[in-house]
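Late entry, evening session. Most of the bench is empty. Finally got around to the prediction I had been postponing all week. Sequence below, unchanged from the version circulated by S.P.
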Amino acid sequence: MVVITELSPSSYDVFLSFRGVDTRLSFVDHLHHALMDANLRTFLDDDEIETGDDLRPELKRAIRGSRASVIVLSTNYASSTWCLDELVLILEQRLTSGQLVIPIFYHVEPTHVRKQESSFGVAMTEHKRRLFEAETNTEKRSQVAEKINRWSKALTEVAQLKGKDAKGRKETELIVEIVTNIHRRLGGHDLHGTLPLLFGMEDSIKFITSWLKDGSSHNADILTIFGMGGIGKTSLARHVHGLQCHLFHKSSFVEGVGEKCATQVNGLLDLQKQLLGDISKTSQIHAHHTLAYKSMIENGLNRKKVFIVLDNIDSVDQLHALLGKEGFYPGSKIIITTKDASLIERYAPINPKVKPKHTKLLLKGLNIEASLQLLSHHAFLSHRPEEGYEEVAKQVMAYCEGHPLALKVLAESLYNKTVAEWEDCLTGLKEEHDSRILKALQMSFDSMQSINDKELFKHIACFFVQKDRVFAETVLNSCGIRTKGIRNLIDRCLLTIGPDNILMMHQLIQEMGRDVVRQESRDKPEERSRLWCHEESFNVLEDNKGTRYIKGLVLDMRMVEIDMFCGPVQLDTSTLSKMHNLILLHLNFVQLNGSYKNFPKKLRWLCMHGFPLKSIPLDLPMENLVALDLSYSNIESFDMSFSNPQPPAKRQKVIGLCSKNKRLLGSLKFLTLSFSEQLSRIGGFSELPALQSLIVINCIGLIDICESIDQSAELVYIDLSYCKKLERVPKTIGRLKKVKTLLLDGCDLAALPIKKRNMDSLQLLESRFFCTNSRAIMGAIANDMKFFVISLPISLVRLSLTNNNMSTESFPMDFSCLSMLTDLCLDGNPIVSLPNCVRTLPRIETLGMSNCLKLMSVEHPPHTLRRLNLYNNCWKPDHKNLLRKISFVPEMAALELIADRNLLAPSSFEIEGMIKIQPLAGVEKKVLRNLGWRWLKFYELRCMVTNSNYGGPQESQIQMYYEFGIFSTIYTLRMWIDIMRIWDIFSKKPSMSFTIPSGPIKVRGLNLLYAVRGSSFELPMIKISNLTKDLTWIYKHCIESFSKRGDMYLYFLSHWMFGMNEMEVGDKITIKLEKCRKDLIRKFQMSFVYDDGRVDVGNEITSTKEKVEKEDPLGYYKSWNHIIGGDLSAFQLTSGEYFLNSVDFLRSLCSNAHYKERSVSFNAFSPAKKSDKLGHAQELEDIAERLPPGSYDFKA
């Protein structure tokens, strides 16, 4: 996430911010000359003419490019809007990049600056009058108000910084003091060492700056910055060190430790000398052994607060030599950059005075925007590609995958080149990669000491990228490779683990690994250990050049250009007989001649997609096979048992091979037969005792899977998806004790053939569901009742029944015996509501019900649920939204909710805890009365056309909307009717201000009403600010706009329900309608709703004491979590400011749960809400406790 380049020559050491009329010809002029004399490059604005509303671009660049800013706060400083804008930007730089800021109080009082009094108060008042009050446009007024607020906060902040007071002092002495201070704090010995310019690194800089400043003065901290080679660790560390070293007594940047130790005779000794000189200035001391310097370094680190960066460390011995083992002085900070994240874990000081705290920061590749900026910076000297280069630039970015060094190297080589030359370069990269890039990346590989880990890395780079980790580990372990080394590869950033436990590797890292293999023999592929290039593999096989060197070979004939061949290409198996050490072989869509006995006997993984034979040849050596993949094959039956239909002579051969102690496939753990259309039967599981994974996807001719499947007792993963002709799922699956995953997607389970005959057990006939392990009953049920039985292993963790045409009634009542199940997928089924069996799952965490187009409600899923997926991506033109309710039990924990807003019925629906929409006529009268809405007599008569952000245009009855603790409704009338009778505040403008009056009764809410005259109207946002408490709520309604017929008034009425302390006596409140047409607003008024200790529960008014017996009509709404007075952290913009928009929040939950740049989760109810009665799920759990484990019946 960093680029490696240098700051432009226009960068500065110091930026001077001042008011020219006060100090330009006196104090500032003298200070500027003193700074320049001290060799501090200083920016002084020679043309202080304010033109326009914003700062000139060169001023912004100068501020951002300076290491320090001196702010001369004089009498008229605040009268200049440019000075105030400079101040805001300077303080932002202080926060984001650690810029040194020194305020000079030039004959002004710091308290006057902080509180905006005296001349500063006068200036701010004038800005408000001139800029704010004179502005008539509402949107611009809001922007001006925000700007003035930023100025005010900046003045307060700068006044609190440690600065210099000019009052009562000689200016010459003050200037010397300022210059000396800046020189020392910027690190005078290396002031003009150019700092790397970083792209896409704002978050990392912020993180490290915060880490440097937040540490305890009683502890020492160590930060490890790790990432793959060339990712920018050194540049980031150098940048931060250059900006922050002034905060410490002593600092040192020790660069290239690993490389210097490896290439220089006295490399480590020289590095120790440099570090000791930086932290102690003992240049007169000379030693000739690293142990002597180590002792002196330990002594220095124990006595001083230091900031040290050790760059490119690749061994623990280097840490011990440069940091010692005695610990550090309190408050010290150590940054280590490395490609091996585990190094710091192995470094442990012995009995340190202060135990260091370890933190890690992983640097990843640049995002698309930063990649484009870096590429453009070096290739075009601009921020964007030149016209005509956009497409080739995208291709270069795709090749580099955000790797900064690769982007920089390629961009520099393509500078001033034509588009055709760019295209030639990209073509060449497919054949031969840039050696400069690979060399930088290979340093991580070369530094590994373990031969096993190097072999492991090469195997993965050549054959196992994008493969399942468990699969890869199992195959490689069988090859004699110790896969515990995967942890080392991850620590060295050579490998990552992706979603679903997939092995992932950056494209350039993978190419580096393959280049290491190429180096074994550049010109003779047959003498390399691994062949992954299809053309090279084909040439080796065609020319019969197989050798003992080859351990793995991949050939897919679809990837070989066969235009040069006449007719079908066939290869002979004899060349394989020479590859005695071949353990991994992929021959996809290859036609072979010769005997299969020529296949190497050491094979562990055999993949032959498009296998042409109808059965497995019996002379194929398979006793050592761990993984066999015959996808897309012509095989008709897979059965290695004695009953395999073969001629007598061959059958006897099978019996001989399949003895009890030496089965033909006795070592096989992974079997894949997917997309084999001719396959009709799978059997002989007794000959597969080690089988762990069976994948048979989309075998459209598969009819039968043998009941002997329970003989493969090690099975963990079974995938039978889209085998639509499958007549039955083996009942013996339920006896397997280790199966974790069972996928039955698209098997059309609801249409399985059903037979019927008389049964002796009347009790069984009357039973709606059952759980049993009885073989007799299981056998009877499948043939005698109009439902089908699937025996589910109680060990299941994941079960998928996607696209099986199963209705809600198809499911059994109880799944409680699946006590280990955490992931259930019911996608694509015609489910109307949540099946009851789901509520009986005691550990369910993930539930999928996406693309269930008939779904109307999801009510009270288990409280253990953490992820609920209701997304719909298969819309039909005539589809109507049906989903009306999503509700939760009070005990429900934080949830990742994925619900497509277009799935919701727009006229009436509820996502409990987020939003509720219902016809106003259906709302209980006592609820309306408690809102203070006592005179709504017209709501049953009108219909409105609203354009909802949830479901588009919709004509419906007048609705009640509830979200964030805010009730609202929209209606129309032909004339103005004062529905509230009593209003406290009126305004003819779309804004109002007031102070909450004193009184004996507490305010618990506000009613707002505005009226609009017009045929259509876009709903404005409502912004309520409590200026006293510095709280602001900006509410964007779920309805985007509305329209009406005829010349009528359109009313928007809302009730804001506040918590305990948001609105109190004496608080100053402002309310604004944001982004609305002022000319359309006819009325805008507000009334208080008081908490008088009484609750309207219907026909009577009860006191607070009687609430125990009478439920609060608003109690349910108050129990929601994401409301005003509750948890609004996910909606926070800045401190005390919240943007309330349920549509954006729901959308964020659908996109990896990020909202407003922070991870969020949905929690329907506040922690305080407790359930008063036993929920339905608990009732089902009680029933389940009385049932034995075993099979489950699904109604057809």
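Two things to note before I forget:
The chain has a mean pLDDT of 81.
DSSP finds 33 helices and 57 strands in the chain.
Will write this up properly tomorrow.
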